[in-house]
Structure formats: structure tokens, C-alpha cells
From TrEMBL:
Organism expressing this protein natively: Algoriphagus ornithinivorans
Protein name: Gliding motility-associated C-terminal domain-containing protein
Gene3D superfamilies: 2.60.40.740, Immunoglobulins
Transmembrane segments: none
Domain PKD: 516-598
Length: 688
């Protein structure tokens, strides 16, 4: 650290050689006063100034300052700087020389000269640059660096928006600036120019505008020079030719490039002449049904004469006798330019009828319908006529269902007709359905009845003859007639009824039983195989169907079936009865079936004395399918003959006369189950 001090008469020069450091300086002065006749030598306590300060950070910035510490003299002091400030201390000073005149209370003046030394300057190297390859190309570049500075970090700002980079690329020809800012926020700016390595293209154009407004017959022709041919063309219409045609009015852009990639952007405008202006006067028909409308045209612009083509086939600037509707016209001038326009003719003050109210019949068959009509757009008095002959009224009451048409005609003869339908609310239809709910296990039956209905207007009220209300489904437990009344929100009613049956369930006590017997009576009481057995049932009327199960795999639906067991064994025969609800009851019996073995035992005597024991002569038979017996006296006279398995035997009489005791002869023929026939004969003794 060094301090430089120079004396200039009564002034001091303070040199501060380091940034940011402060250096006090003390100056003491003594003055001599000349002597004269009346002179006295006076000693004065001179002003002493102690100076401290700070260098400017930048050569062009107000960052330096000066502080004065005053001693000696006679306070108070006044200050006047060479920059006209009157403060003791100074701030935000540029580098340079500053002078201050200090005056104390006695008028003594003291002058100080102070130098604020500038810092080292920020100096840039010349810009390193490369020109663009094309007249309007953007491949130029520039590079900047610091030659003398006070250390990083530096900030770099380019005029094209780039920041904090030392090199800028993709530059077009033109003038640019770059600014470098050091860490003390001191900056330096330099400018440079990017040129072009080759001359740009020159383009001239010839434009033909559209001949008519909206017509596509404009053209653009280009003449290109400069650059390096050949050239390519890209129009915003998609065309790639130098010249384009069939253009309507508008803006057209083209991009032209030469072989080096240098480009030219051109924007051209195709105009069109002012078109024809069409003014019209449209008159609507006097009534909605009239055909006295009119359209009149007045044409300005374009080139006369004009021709007219209307959508209804008419020509000329005026068409008459028109009904309401839409009409189009095409007007063409002498240059072939044309204008098209559409006109809509609407009825003026059309007489219309509006339905204010239409009330349907409250219930089917009633005559309480109503209609109320409102008229709008009528002129003067009107005539009102209804289709049923009624006149003069727009309000109708006590109407039956049907269609009513009203016609209204005003003073101008315009008329309107309106038809109104007076309907009737859909009539209510109802039906009662029923079903029985059976619990076979508990032997109970419950009847369910429900009503279904259509039509009418909700909500509905329901009332049953059993007393229930507002229920669609009820229960019943006896046969009879159920009735229900349905009433809708309008008070319309309908009644429905149905007969319901509540039959007694067989499971509630119906008798079911059976027994059996052999159809062929023989000597054997047990049931044998191959014998026909008749099963006889006792079934209560509540059972409407039944089923037999004989235990041998066969069944029958007959009430009293005949069955033959093919094999010996013990069979459980089951009779099941079914009532109207499908519930069932059953009864079972066990039957032992023996094997049938052929046996015929012929007694040799009998005692027909009426005591119930051995009163008839009849063999004991088993497993026999046919039997025939004849009895003779010893003279060979036949006394008795009998056939069949149900034979009762001979009781010892002949033609009602009791025969005496004695010996008699018999002849017996029988057939077994195998079909073998056997004949036996012998004697029998009648004992009395």
C-alpha cells in the first residue's frame, strides 16, 4: 500500500492508489502578516483539514466519495466546492479533481484540492467475427474476450438477446453490440457489423389483379437476379413455379432459394375491383295465402348493361305476384362479373290463431270438454265459424270428444283455420286375477288375489269388497265373488269382479285306504305268484288323481287295478292320492306272495248234513288254471257237473232231491300253470 502526497501552495494533492481503502491526510498551515507603521504580528490558529476518501469503482460511474474532518479556525465552517455543492462531505463521485473552499466564522478561507483517482479500466479485445454466407443468411458469428479487467465473474449481453456467452452464432448481416459487465458492475460496450460473403437476390414482380370481385383470374410474375441460380420457389398456395395464376384477391407469400441456400421472402397482394352493389325493395303479400308480393332491384357499380336471372325463371330487375317464400337472383354485368343474393318474403301481420286452452273430457263418455282460441294479426272485425255450426265465439264448453275446426276471416279477407282435438282421458280397464298358495306339509291353503289396471290418471284409489283399500293384492280364505273399484285422480271409476274357488284340501282329512283279494278262489288262502290280485281303493272325493306302486317296479294309475306278482316275496304296496293343489297322501300294505306249486287233493268221503263242515265234495286245488268235475252213480248216470276255478262242489243232491248215502263215482279234469291237462277218476262215499 502506497500513499502519494504533493503540495501546491496551500493545497494538497491526495493520491489513493488502492481501491476501497481510506487514507487520512493532515495539513497544518502558519501565516505571516506583513509589518507596517501600525503593524502587529498576530498569530492565527489556522484551519487544519483531515481528508479521507474512496476511489471510484468505474471510470464513468459515481462510486467515489470524500470525507473532511476540520480542526482549527473558528467554527462554524462553510464549504463551497468547485461543483457548487455546499456540503462538508461528497459521495457518488466520478474520478477527477475536486476543489473545496472552507471559510470559518472569522471569514478566514482555506482551499483544499483533492483528486479522486480512477481505477484500472475494463478493456475488451477486438471482436472476432465471421460474415454471413448469404445476403440475408443467418450463419454469421462473433466472439468477444476481455483484454484488461479486474477478475471474474463477467456478465455478457448481446444486442440480439443472447446473455452470458462469449460467442454468438446464427447471425444475419447487420450491426450488433455486446456489453461486458465486471463484478463491480462496471461495463464496457463495443459494436460490430456482420457482413455478407455474397450479394443477395433481387426480385421484382408483375401483378395482374382479379378482373371481378371474387373471381380467380389474378396472376403474379417474378423476375429474379443476383444470388447463384438456379432458384427454387415455394408459395403459400403450394405452388413451386416462379409465376402463379388463377388467383383471387388476397396476400401471397413466396420463399425463393438459390443453390447456396440463400433465401428471399416475398409478400405480394392481388387486388380486385369494386363489385356491384345491389339494393332491393321487398313487399310481402297482403295475406299469408296471397300471391301479391314483389321484389324490385337497384344496381350500382360494375359495367352496364346488366342481365338478371331469378330462381323462379323470371328476368328483369323486378318480379311481381309472388307468394311468401325464398327467391334467388344472379345479376351479371357487361364484363361478366356477377353478384348473387337471396331474398325471403314473409307475410306481414299474418292472421294467426293460437290455442289458449284445450280441456279433454274429465272421464270417458262425459261431455265437459273445453276450447279457447286467441286471434292475433287480424285487421278490423272478424267472422268466426266453427265446423259444428257455432259462430261468433272463440270459447267453447260442454264439448264431446272429437275434432273441432274454427275459421276466422278479417276485413281484408285474410283468413286462418285451426283444428283442435278434444280428447278424453284413457278409460280405466281393470282385471282381477287370483291364485292359491298351498303348504302341503302343514296342510294349509291361502288365496291371493290381485288387480291389474290400465288407463286413467294417477294417483289411483283402490277399494276391495273385502274392505281393504289402496292395495293391489289381498288374501282370501273362502270361495265367493271378489269385487274391486278403481278411482283415478280425475274421479273416474271402474269396477271389476271375479269368482274365486277355495276347495278343501285332501290333506285336511280326506280318507285314503285300500284292500285286496284274489280273483280266483281256490283252496289256498295265501297269494301265489301268477295269480290275479284285485286291489280295491277307498279314496275320498278330494283326491283327483292317484298312483299305485306294487313294490315290484310296476305302477298303475287305475283306481282299482288288477296285478299279478311274478316272483315270490314280501311286497310293500303303496297307494298315493293327489288333491287339486298337488298335495299328496299315501297308504301302504305289505303282501306276502308264495310260489305257486301244482296241487289237487281229492277227498274220498263227505257229509252233507248242513253243519258247515265237509258239506260238499270239492277237491283242494293249488296252482290250477282250469277245472272240470263230473259225478256219476254206480249205474253210470251223471248226477252233477261243474267247471271253473270258482267251483262250489257237489252237495249230494240231484235235481233238488237229496240222494241216499252210498258210493258214487267222480271224474275230474284240471290244467296247471304250465298248460298240462290231467284227468283223475275214482269213488266217493256219501255219508248221512
Amino acid at each position: 500500500m502506497q500513499l502519494g502526497l504533493k503540495i501546491y501552495g496551500k493545497s494538497l494533492l491526495l493520491l489513493l492508489l488502492s481501491i476501497g481503502l481510506y487514507f487520512p491526510v493532515f495539513a497544518q498551515f502558519s501565516f505571516e502578516v506583513p509589518k507596517s507603521a501600525n503593524e502587529r504580528i498576530l498569530t492565527y490558529n489556522s484551519i487544519q483539514v483531515e481528508v479521507s476518501g474512496k476511489l471510484a469503482l468505474c471510470s464513468h460511474s459515481e462510486k467515489g466519495h470524500i470525507n473532511l474532518d476540520i480542526k482549527g479556525g473558528t467554527p462554524p465552517y462553510t464549504f463551497r466546492w468547485n461543483t457548487n455543492e455546499t456540503t462538508q462531505n461528497r459521495t457518488n463521485l466520478f474520478a477527477g479533481t475536486y476543489t473545496v473552499e472552507i471559510t470559518d466564522a472569522t471569514g478566514y478561507k482555506h482551499v483544499e484540492k483533492i483528486i479522486v483517482q480512477p481505477p484500472f479500466p475494463l478493456i475488451l479485445n477486438p471482436v472476432e467475427k465471421k460474415d454471413a454466407s448469404c445476403g440475408s443468411g443467418n450463419d454469421g458469428s462473433a466472439k468477444i474476450s476481455v483484454k484488461i479487467g479486474r477478475g471474474e465473474p463477467y456478465k455478457v449481453k448481446w444486442s440480439n438477446g443472447l446473455t452470458n456467452v462469449w460467442e454468438a452464432n446464427n447471425l444475419k448481416p447487420g450491426t450488433y453490440t455486446v456489453t461486458v459487465i465486471d463484478k463491480y458492475n462496471c461495463d464496457v460496450t463495443t459494436s460490430f457489423e456482420i457482413g455478407s460473403a455474397s450479394a443477395g437476390m433481387s426480385v421484382s414482380e408483375s401483378i395482374t389483379n382479379s378482373s371481378c370481385q371474387g373471381k380467380n383470374d389474378g396472376t403474379i410474375s417474378l423476375s429474379v437476379s443476383g444470388g447463384v441460380g438456379p432458384y427454387t420457389y415455394k408459395w403459400n398456395t403450394g405452388a413451386s413455379t416462379k409465376d402463379i395464376s388463377d388467383l383471387k384477391s388476397g396476400i401471397y407469400e413466396v420463399l425463393i432459394k438459390d443453390t447456396k441456400g440463400c433465401a428471399f421472402q416475398g409478400i405480394y397482394k392481388v387486388d380486385e375491383p369494386k363489385g356491384m352493389e345491389l339494393k332491393s325493395n321487398v313487399l310481402a303479400p297482403s295475406c299469408s295465402s296471397s300471391e301479391n308480393g314483389q321484389i324490385t332491384l337497384d344496381i350500382n357499380g360494375g359495367t352496364a348493361p346488366y342481365t338478371y336471372s331469378w330462381s323462379n325463371g323470371k328476368t328483369g330487375p323486378e318480379i311481381k305476384n309472388l307468394p311468401a317464400g325464398t327467391y334467388q337472383v344472379k345479376v351479371t354485368d357487361a364484363s361478366g362479373c356477377f353478384i348473387q343474393q337471396e331474398f325471403k318474403i314473409e307475410n306481414q301481420s299474418a292472421l294467426t290463431l293460437q290455442l289458449v286452452q284445450s280441456k279433454n273430457l274429465s272421464c270417458s263418455g262425459e261431455n265437459d270438454g273445453e276450447i279457447e282460441i286467441k286471434i292475433t294479426g287480424a285487421k278490423g272485425t272478424v267472422d268466426i265459424t266453427w265446423s259444428d255450426g257455432v259462430k261468433g265465439s272463440l270459447s267453447r264448453k260442454n264439448l264431446a270428444a272429437g275434432t273441432y275446426e274454427v275459421k276466422v276471416t278479417d276485413e281484408s279477407g285474410c283468413s286462418s283455420t285451426k283444428a283442435v282435438q278434444v280428447g278424453q282421458n284413457e278409460s280405466i280397464t281393470a282385471r282381477i286375477e287370483s291364485a292359491l298358495e298351498v303348504n302341503c306339509d302343514q296342510g294349509t291353503v291361502k288365496g291371493n288375489a290381485w288387480v291389474s289396471f290400465q288407463g286413467g290418471k294417477a294417483p289411483f284409489k283402490i277399494k276391495w269388497s273385502t274392505g281393504e283399500v289402496d292395495k293391489k293384492e289381498i288374501t282370501f280364505n273362502q270361495s265367493g265373488t271378489l269385487k274391486v273399484t278403481i278411482t283415478d285422480a280425475l274421479g273416474c271409476k271402474v269396477e271389476a269382479e271375479a269368482k274365486v274357488d277355495f276347495p278343501k284340501a285332501a290333506t285336511q282329512g280326506g280318507r285314503l285306504d285300500f284292500n285286496y283279494r284274489k280273483l280266483v278262489i281256490n283252496a289256498e288262502p295265501e297269494v301265489l305268484t301268477q295269480e290275479e290280485i284285485l286291489f280295491e281303493s277307498e279314496i275320498a272325493p278330494e283326491f283327483i288323481a292317484w298312483e299305485w306302486n306294487f313294490g315290484d317296479g310296476t305302477v298303475s294309475s287305475e283306481k282299482d287295478p288288477i296285478h299279478v306278482f311274478e316272483k315270490a316275496g314280501i311286497y310293500e304296496v303303496k297307494l298315493t292320492g293327489f288333491d287339486i293343489y298337488g298335495c299328496s297322501s299315501f297308504e301302504t300294505n305289505r303282501i306276502q306272495v308264495a310260489t305257486a306249486t301244482e296241487m289237487v287233493v281229492i277227498p274220498n268221503a263227505f257229509t252233507p248234513n248242513g253243519d258247515g263242515l265237509n258239506d260238499t265234495f270239492l277237491p283242494k286245488m293249488k296252482a290250477i288254471t282250469a277245472f272240470h268235475m263230473e259225478v256219476f252213480n254206480t249205474w253210470g248216470e251223471r248226477l252233477f257237473v261243474e267247471s271253473g276255478l270258482e267251483a262250489r262242489g257237489w252237495d249230494g243232491s240231484y235235481r233238488g232231491q237229496i240222494l241216499p248215502a252210498g258210493n258214487y263215482l267222480y271224474k275230474i279234469t284240471y290244467t296247471n300253470r304250465e298248460g298240462i291237462q290231467t284227468t283223475k277218476s275214482g269213488g266217493i262215499t256219501l255219508i248221512r
